[in-house]
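Lab notebook, design round three. We kept the backbone fixed and only want residue identities now. Task for the bench partner: fill in a sequence for the structure below.
Input structure tokens:
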């Protein structure tokens, strides 16, 4: 285990959050701390009508490695040797060589229940809201893991790997895989550069009526 837990303010933690794909199979905190974070995300992150549709699976050690071997097999079968050897193999190896992965799911049964119980005017919105809540869980954990000194990246090999993953970890069939979050200690020299902005702030943020003083 490397460095101790660092306590950052919310703003500092959100500024520290970046995509880091070169990761080592090491951690800065005990596995139990990461499990606590996942528990906390499940217990506290909001959802539409408090529908609580997001599910998580946390994989460490051989379970993490198994996920990336499932992904490697599925990708190789899909894209063939030439494309596999042309970069994909190394990309997947990077993920396999990290410390752990969190799987993000939507529980279709809870999503359907929310839709059935919601007023008619919202029925065409609830699917989108299920996705919003899942994204909030992702952002919560991404930011929290980076605040603990871990590096994180977010991957999407679903639905290619869904069936094998569900079979391997006996995941309920109603859960639909949405994202895979890889974490580990960032490799030397993997710190990202300053975040490039595609458009100036004033073209992306509107503010009206703010008081100059509190
Ligand atoms: C919804 C979403 C989907 C993403 N999907 C992937 C992905 O499949 N693979 C990947 O390597 N990065 C993925 N990313 C990471 C983005 O490429 C990254 O966040 C973006 O380039 C900005 O960089 P930053 O995270 O360092 O701020 C995703 C990010 C978001 C928010």
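Proposed sequence:
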């Amino acid at each position: 285990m490397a460095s101790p837990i660092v306590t950052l303010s919310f703003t500092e933690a959100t500024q520290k959050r970046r995509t880091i794909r070169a990761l080592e199979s090491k951690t800065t905190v005990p596995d139990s701390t990461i499990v606590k974070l996942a528990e906390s995300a499940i217990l506290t992150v909001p959802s539409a009508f408090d529908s609580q549709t997001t599910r998580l699976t946390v994989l460490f050690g051989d379970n993490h490695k198994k996920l990336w071997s499932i992904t490697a097999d599925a990708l190789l079968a899909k894209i063939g040797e030439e494309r596999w050897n042309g970069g994909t193999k190394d990309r997947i190896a990077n993920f396999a060589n990290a410390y752990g992965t969190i799987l993000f799911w939507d529980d279709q049964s809870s999503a359907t229940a929310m839709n059935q119980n919601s007023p008619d005017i919202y029925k065409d919105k609830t699917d989108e809201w299920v996705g919003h809540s899942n994204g909030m869980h992702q952002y919560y954990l991404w930011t929290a893991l980076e605040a603990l000194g871990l590096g994180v990246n977010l991957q999407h090999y679903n639905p290619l790997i869904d069936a094998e993953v569900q079979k391997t970890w006996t995941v309920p069939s109603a859960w639909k895989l949405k994202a895979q979050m890889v974490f580990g200690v960032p490799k030397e020299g993997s710190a990202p550069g300053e975040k490039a902005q595609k458009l100036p702030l004033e073209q992306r943020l509107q503010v009206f009526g703010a008081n100059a003083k509190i």
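Keep this in mind before ordering anything: The mean pLDDT is 95.
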